[in-house]
């Protein structure tokens, strides 16, 4: 167990100082499989070789993810000391169950393929149907701002049910989430957050209070919330967490649900919209495999499970989006001295980083066109090396591999599918004039707790009715 947070602040400042661009620069110059960077009070071991990533994954008890959940989690959500003790107790499952291991097991089992994942996806799609209905041809929108609203409403409806705070019409909750996300690094440093990160701190309080209210009247039987939230609520209740702390902890969960998902869906959408050949091929693939027409020809139904199985180009496009745009790092804490791969001594108390930005831009895994967006890269028929499987790390790996990956894959594929089937989209400039050229916006400097960083500048577009889809209704099916 980590007895003090003092060692962490040194490492945290180190993690903030180094980062995507730094790791990329160093890795381009030196080809060591692992190298060491100093921090105020120890070292960061940066792993860049695929074989060593596998070795880290195999040693998840010694090179552990959970200490970061506990330490960063407290700084991110600002829950109280009593809750912190509950979280830290038996953190790595050393002696039977503990809060974090129970939450982890509940999350993994409820987000695995099966009935609960399907019912979450169904709820998400129902929300998407009505949201897309509100988009009118001729309208001009900021694409990222629009994606934020749509994905937040769809995801939180699927996960928390109809009473989720984002659907309650409370003003500015979506903006509050992004203010919080924007100030994450400052909140993580955690020195007088009300002074050093006032906007993020206020936003965190607002979100926390909204979820406190949600949990104060929460009834698992009537909430229509996903099994994941029912499992979390049951563990929170078992460990005696107050609604205030449950609200605070949920702000951290929102990061998992939204912070990577929204930029990922935005980038997937813009890559597809901006490439006429890709757009044509994805539409054709969907049409050929996953769309059924009602007998009167007025309702087109997207069969989501068939799409997941048969739309390999759409899936490959999602994977490539994450290869190019997931740039964060998996972080592990060294709990005991360990000789990694029988060669590299990692000393207790230090930190291991596995930067996605380095793995995802390694030409030995991905080939000479590593820096290009190649939507077909992950198609089974394309050449892919053994290394690329391990080098692909948008969802992390080993014992802490992201449990939300199945949901977000279905969500991204389905939302992009219905959007491109339904609308034509053209980029416009800020005066609303048709510009005709697309630009893929740069991503902002990273945050320590997320992996797909949001964009620098939004992209304005005009929505047009797709030829042949005038007056057509769209629906989803989960066969
Ligand atoms: C594109 C979207 C997403 C990306 C890129 C992503 C990425 C990640 C990464 C890198 C980790 C840490 C894994 C590691 O270091 O080994 C993680 C953990 C986690 N993610 Fe995701 N994630 C996404 C979406 C989601 C969604 C939609 C959910 C929930 C519905 C979710 C829930 C979680 C949880 C609960 C953990 C902690 C796992 C643990 O305690 O072991 N994620 N995610």
What can you tell me about this protein's structure?
Helix 6 runs antiparallel to helix 13 and helix 15 crosses helix 18. With about 475 residues, the chain is α+β, with helices and mostly antiparallel strands. The protein has 22 helices and 13 strands. It starts with 5 loop residues before the first helix and ends with a strand. The protein has one domain: Orthogonal Bundle (Cytochrome p450), CATH 1.10.630.10. The N terminus is likely disordered. A 5-stranded mixed sheet has the order 1-2-10-7-3. A 3-stranded antiparallel sheet has the order 4-12-11. Strands 5-6-13 form a 3-stranded mixed sheet. Protoporphyrin IX containing FE binds next to helix 6, helix 14, helix 15 and helix 22. It comes from Ramalina farinacea. Keywords: Heme, Iron, Metal-binding. Pfam families: p450 (PF00067). InterPro entries: CYP450_monoxygenase_sec-met, Cyt_P450, Cyt_P450_E_grp-IV, Cyt_P450_sf. One of its GO terms (molecular function) is iron ion binding.
């Amino acid at each position: 167990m980590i007895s003090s947070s003092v060692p962490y602040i040194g490492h945290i400042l180190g993690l903030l100082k180094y980062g995507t661009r730094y790791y990329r620069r160093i890795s381009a110059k030196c080809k060591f499989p692992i190298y060491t960077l100093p921090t105020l009070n120890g070292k960061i071991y940066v792993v860049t070789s695929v074989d060593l990533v596998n070795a880290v994954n195999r040693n998840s008890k010694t090179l552990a993810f959970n200490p970061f959940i506990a330490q960063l989690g407290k700084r991110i959500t600002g829950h109280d000391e009593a809750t912190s003790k509950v979280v830290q107790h038996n953190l790595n499952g050393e002696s039977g169950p503990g809060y974090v291991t129970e939450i982890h097991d509940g999350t993994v089992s409820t987000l695995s393929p099966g009935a609960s994942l399907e019912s979450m996806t169904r709820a998400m799609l129902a929300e998407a149907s009505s949201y897309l209905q509100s988009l009118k041809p001729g309208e001009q929108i900021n694409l990222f701002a629009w994606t934020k609203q749509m994905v937040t409403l769809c995801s939180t409806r699927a996960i928390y049910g109809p009473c989720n705070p984002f659907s309650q019409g409370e003003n500015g909750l979506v903006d509050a989430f992004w203010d919080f996300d924007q100030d994450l690094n400052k909140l993580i440093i955690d020195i007088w957050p009300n002074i050093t990160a006032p906007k993020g701190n206020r936003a965190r309080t607002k979100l926390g209070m909204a979820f406190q209210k949600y949990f104060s009247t929460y009834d698992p039987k009537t909430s229509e919330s996903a099994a994941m939230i029912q499992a979390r609520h049951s563990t929170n209740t078992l460990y005696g967490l107050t609604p205030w702390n449950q609200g605070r902890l949920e702000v951290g969960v929102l990061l998992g649900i939204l912070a990577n998902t929204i930029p990922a869906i935005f980038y997937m959408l813009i890559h597809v919209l901006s490439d006429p050949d890709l757009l044509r091929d994805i539409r054709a693939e969907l049409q050929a495999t996953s769309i059924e027409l009602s007998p009167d020809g007025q309702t087109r139904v997207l069969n989501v499970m068939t799409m997941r199985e048969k739309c390999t180009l759409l899936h490959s496009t999602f994977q490539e989006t994450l290869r190019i745009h997931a740039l964060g790092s998996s972080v592990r804490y060294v709990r005991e001295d360990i000789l990694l791969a029988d060669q590299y001594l990692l000393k207790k108390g230090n930190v291991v980083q596995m930067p996605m930005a380095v793995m995802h831009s390694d030409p030995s895994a991905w080939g000479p066109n590593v820096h290009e967006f190649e939507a077909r890269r992950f198609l089974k028929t394309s050449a892919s090396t053994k290394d690329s499987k391990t080098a692909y790390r948008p969802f992390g790996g080993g014992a802490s591999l992201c449990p939300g990956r199945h949901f977000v894959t279905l969500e991204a594929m389905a939302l992009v599918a219905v959007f491109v089937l339904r609308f034509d989209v053209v980029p416009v400039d800020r005066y609303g004039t048709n510009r005709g050229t697309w630009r893929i916006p740069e991503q902002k400097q990273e945050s320590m707790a997320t992996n797909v960083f949001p964009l620098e500048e939004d992209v304005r577009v005009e929505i047009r009715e797709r030829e042949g889809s005038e007056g057509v209704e769209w629906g989803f099916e989960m066969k």
